[in-house]
Amino acid sequence: MTDYELHTLPNGIRILYKHAASTITHCCFIVNAGSRDETENQTGLAHFIEHLLFKETERRNTNQILNRLELVGADLNAYTTKEYTCIHASLLNQHLERTIDLFEDILFHSTFPEDEQEKERGVILDEISSYLDQPEEAIQDDFEELLFKGHPLGNNILGTPETVARLNSADINEFIAANYNTSEMVFAVFGDYDLKKVMRLSEKYFGAIPASSAKKNRIAPALIAPSKTIITKPISQTHCIIGSRAYPASHQHKNGLLLLNNLLGGMGMSSRLNLEIREKHGIAYTVESNYTTLSDTGIFSIYFGTDSEKAEKATKLIHKELKKLRDNKLGTLQLHQAKEKFIGQIALAEENRMSLIISMAKSLLDFNCIDTLQQLFDKINAVTAEDLLAISNEIFDSNKMITLLFEPKE
Fold it and tell me: pLDDT tens digits, residue range 219-240?
């Protein structure tokens, strides 16, 4: 039995509603369009459009857009990923119609005036500069560029100063026409309403949007060879990422790799990497692993930052932990504890209602269905020690990994 309601408008936009006994509503509008959908000369365009959505529409100027929700204490924001654009808001329940009206206006009636493009171009160039000044952030983008060399997935979501400088209205209109398809949009609401009200407001504001379903041309990335890259920078520490391609969102071993990632270097202080590298040897303040799923591939990576003279030892310790997982099957107690920890963290994460409703909306786009919490727990509990051993040998093979180091200049 599902704990949500789903309705599809005639134009293909899906409306997702989950009830919550709260005075606060969280809602989001997700479009299946991200930086991987840009052409070679348009890198940064999806993110550029996301910024410009808040600038001017056919009936509102920038101040009217920004004040529409802030004047009633609501929070409005947006972000772009490699595959999605998401607008979201948190608000008092009585302001739902005001929010839906604004979402519809900025998503479907933005005018993208030239003067606002120029202003926002400067803002994004500053954002790129700020990002490059943070090596722990910049190294992730450089790593993904190596991991997906020659593919749009390897491009920085922000773009480059050169590409952002030449983006124009024709690019914007072309990208929206090709990628803002009503058949790949989800509007989701998490709040305390009668279902009929949510559906009535959704139909009132989104029902008249013309249907569109242009075919996407997403090409899976080609295989790449393992490599080690060292880049010197004016920094005080060594930063390192070690990783590889991983399973896509629909893969049967996704939950097994999520479990392994959490055991190895996920949330909390008790991960294997943190206990070995920080607590036992004291050679890195931050060491963590991450697994990100995409529609046709995935990213597994381990990051650490440390003093230059300790980087080699930290790298060896990481490979030692990966080898343990490749060589040794988890015992019954180890497997049980790993599952209990991961399931508990997932349950606690449900308290972040905005993250939850965004996750549900993305699941609807990716799989056209949403697992209940219990269904997710059942999938994690179904993972066996044999599964984890096979996954470790496939994903954690040191001979297939890419290593990227940012090292201080002498």
Answer: 999 989 999 999 999 999 999 9
Token pair listed for 400: 């297939």
What is the DSSP-derived secondary structure letter of residue 253?
A: T
DSSP 160-174: -HHHHHH--HHHHHH
Round to whole Å and give the CA distance between 230 and 142.
Answer: 11
Please indicate, yes or no, whether the overall pTM of this predicted structure exceeds 0.70. Answer: yes
Strand order in the sheet with 85-92: 5-8, 14-19, 185-191, 24-31, 85-92, 75-80
CA 143 – CA 244 distance, rounded (Å): 10
Whether 389 and 383 have beta carbons less than 8 Å apart is answered as no
Residues 6 or more apart whose Cβ sits within 8 Å of residue 301: 140, 143, 241, 242, 243, 289, 290
Return the closest-CA partner of residue 29 out of 206, 227, 254, 174.
Answer: 206
**Is the same domain home to 287 and 374?**
yes
Residues 182, 271 within the same domain: no
In a domain, 220, yes or no: no
Domain assignment of residue 286, yes or no: yes
**Sign of the torsion formed by the C-alpha atoms of 200, 203, 204 and 206:** positive
- C-alpha–C-alpha distance, residues 324 and 392, integer Å: 9
How far, in Å, CA of 362 to CA of 357, rounded? 9
Q: What percent of the chain has pLDDT over 70?
A: 100
